[in-house]
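Why do we care about 3D structure at all? Because function follows from shape, and shape follows, mostly, from sequence. That is the central idea of this module. The next example makes it concrete: a single protein chain, its amino acid sequence, and then its structure expressed as tokens.
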Amino acid sequence: MKKITLIILVLAGMFASCKKVLDIKDLKNYNPDEVWNDENLANAYMAGLYPMFGNWSPSLEQKSEQLAGIFWYADRITISNGEFKIWNYNRIRLINQAIKDVAEGGLKQELKDVIAAQAKFMRAYTYFEMVTYYGGVPYITEPQDRYTDSLHTPRNSTKECFELIVKDLDEAIAKLPKRHLASSPDYGKIDANFAMAFKAKVLLYKASPQFNPSNPWNNAYWNDAYTAAKTAYDELKAQGYRLVTNYSDIALVEKGPETVFAVVNAYPNKTTEWDNGVRPGSESRGPANSTPTWEFVKTFPMKDGKLYNDPTGLYYKTDAQFLQSYWENRDPRFDKSVVWNGKVYEVSGKAGKRQYTSLGIAHELDDFGVNPVAGVNSTNLDRYTGFFVLKNSLLRLKQAEVQQYDVDFVLMRFAEVMMNYAEAANETGRIAEALAILKEIRQRAGIEPGAAGNYGITATTREAMREAILAERNIEFCFEGHRFWDLRRLRMLNRLDGTTKTGVEAIAIQPGGADMPMSEARTKATAYQLTEANFRYSLLQVPRSGVKVNVVPEKYYFFPIQSDILDRNRNLVQNNNWGGAFNPTLE
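And the structure:
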């Protein structure tokens, strides 16, 4: 039999108790005594599973309107290709093995319970990912052996999968420590608070239109979602979880009161991608690969909480006026999330630095535009927009240090617990509760309360509040990877289908509006003397070549199981929106 060697390296600073390297040969037949009678090795085994929670990625929102790039070209997803295919049964096998073997080992019962609880949460988390992709999947809870077990397991129904996910989560919550404090050596491990918050998210998905297309808003599952969301909100709030005062500090000030669960990073042993991906190329190790679109820039409200083109707003502007002054009087989260031409951007320790994107003025790795007077051509027209991501950027890192980014990855924060609660409250007729949550979110953001004290929120119906919540999630969680999945679970992918994306070109002008001579503009820009108001702005569609329009068909509400997997398991049935007979919904 082929020998398989698994090396689980313990990440420095992640779990203080795991100091050994676990070397298990032949995963199918290794002696459990090697692991489950030794606390360090048992913890090391579990630590090897934690990468499942991911890490920062600058490109998470390229699937939505937030970032440049036409992600959804025609037939991006097919039955045979590898796009949006996850079939994590190798991980499920390792998790199930842990649950079985720890129970039979000689560890203290308290530690056995905690390890089994972590594993059950991991199992629920893994199955939830697959269910959001495909609907029901085979829900296997025992370790399978390819030599003795039948691997031709049929799919459980979607309803059965949700019930089993919740069962695993409830059992995990009962045995997990309530909370791992920031000062604890176990910080970064799963605790009951994270499990409660995640359970609320699971039940929000279960109630959503994705799984209930013929009864999207009045199905009974919304009551379950509300109960779980309110429980999580009340429990965590009572323990001191809260919104941090400064939106910029959510991730950058680590282990704060808003963080429910974070993946711990620590240079030099564990770093991740963020600044090397979102920064302008001149301040990074190459061109930025994630730049905000004009479409997204427009969605940030003004300081009064209303959109720029709302005639009732204090800061109302026409489209033409807004284009020439889009940075003025905005929701403060805009200033803390986005870099624009002429903005003060003190990156790499450069006091007073302003970032420019204007062609002929900006660095060649930063520029965007087609101005013929510039005398040069931009090489960034297919990837840039005239904007860059500021949110969560570690500005103190110098250009040569961007690959040392080690901010903890915040996977679940209290703001998400709050917004999940608001959504479930609204869909169960509790609009006042939803409004109260939105007001808290906007108050922290720094939006003006207004005469009515509603921070620009005018929603008085369930439908209007639904849109207000969705819009707030788009801003509050920008660049965090929520937007596409929110639209998908709400069956609103039509809002992406057929869309294009746009950037903004900046051309330096004199006080009277005439173009500034390029030599003068370059001299002033070198001294950071040009502000946003010293430019004229125009729109350019991006990318300038290749596919320019998103194609997001109805069938993407559930993805297909890959044909190779179906070929290996004759008992699996393909989803009915991809030519099979399996109904992936709850109906």
